[in-house]
Amino acid sequence: MAAQKDWRIDIYPLIFFAIVVAAKTYFLIGYIAGNEQLWGLVYDSGRRAAMGSGAAYYLTGEFSYLGYYLVSTAFDALVFYSLAVRRAAKDRPKGFWENIFPLITVFVPVLGFALMFVPQIRAILPDYPQAFLHWLYDLSPAYPFYMNLAGLLIGLFGAAFSVWAISHLRASFGLRTAVRELVTTGPYSRIRHPLYFGEMVHIFGVVILAATPAAIYLYVVAVILQVIRAKIEERKFLASVPEYAEFRRNTGFLWPRLF
User: Fold this and answer.
1) How large is the angle between the packed helices 11-34 and 2-9, nearest 10 degrees?
2) Less Cβ crowding at N or C end of the chain, within 10 Å?
3) What pLDDT is stored for residue 5 in this prediction?
4) Which long-range contacts (CB under 8 A, 24 or more apart) does 231-240 make?
5) Three-class SS of residue 98?
6) Dihedrals φ, ψ of 254, to 5°?
7) How far is CA 109 from the centre of its chain?
8) Burial class (CB in 10 A: 0-12, 13-18, 19+), 213
9) How confident is the model at residue 173 (pLDDT cuts 50, 70, 90)?
């Protein structure tokens, strides 16, 4: 009965991530199948030679983008799987801060950054100061390529780290603040909140790709929300799980403890 009740509470996030995974998979298949320029360059050495360094820039960007997209889709699929198979909570979420606030920390950055890439909204967002852009151009005329590549690689690392973290959480994962099993394997052997660390790195890559100061402001808000969420979780675990105090002493908050 407890497991059935637990399922009902998070049915909407389950549906949300099912839709996200289906939409991303559909878009990815369509993008790969319909990208004639990409496959033309891959299989035609003559075209690559004619484009010179432009072909290398294009292919590097495309495969970095596809790798990032695959990893981020794998993360969403793992979230869906974890929500579907997770255990019933030993200590269920209570009140606004454990029920609603964690959902805000998830959906505010997801929706905010998604809207930034909508052309109509992007058109009204402020650009970086011209002096800063001229400085980047003086460093390298190809700075847009390098910035995009850096954003993709940083986002890829963050998404891959998040996949690693959630693969150890699995049935203990939840969007709301609840106590299930204390996970101490994988990245959790050194860091208390590796999933949040991975998400912060992932989003920072998106900030670079967004190329607008508004993305930096949203990123600061997202990080603050995640830190507050992590503190709320720790308070709940300290009150419910006796061994959590020792686990807390031996691990870092968002990165491994150095000393």
Assistant:
1) 60
2) C
3) 43
4) 232/97, 232/98, 232/101, 232/102, 232/177, 233/177, 233/193, 234/192, 236/91, 236/98, 236/177, 236/178, 236/179, 237/179, 237/182, 239/91, 240/90, 240/91, 240/179
5) helix
6) -120, -10
7) 10
8) middle
9) confident
Q: Which fold is adopted by the domain 2-250?
A: Four Helix Bundle (Hemerythrin (Met), subunit A) (1.20.120)
Report how many helices (DSSP H) and strands (DSSP E) the chain contains, helices first: 13, 0
- Mean residue pLDDT across the chain: 87
pLDDT of residue 15: 87
Distance between CA 95 and CA 98 in Å, rounded? 6
Beta bridge partners of 252: 191
Burial of 158 per CB tally in 10 Å (0-12, 13-18, 19+): buried
Q: Which of 34-38, 121-125, 205-209, 234-238 has the highest mean pLDDT?
A: 234-238
**Total residue count of the chain as it appears in this document:** 259
Nearest to 177 by CA among 196, 158, 199, 162: 196
pLDDT digits (tens, 9 = 90+) for 134-168: 998 898 888 888 888 898 889 889 989 998 999 99
The answer on pLDDT for 8 being more than 60 is no
Judged against a pLDDT cut of 50, whether residue 4 lies above it is answered with no
DSSP 236: H
Per-domain residue ranges of the chain: 2-250
**Of the ranges 72-81, 185-194, 203-212, which one carries the lowest mean pLDDT score?**
72-81
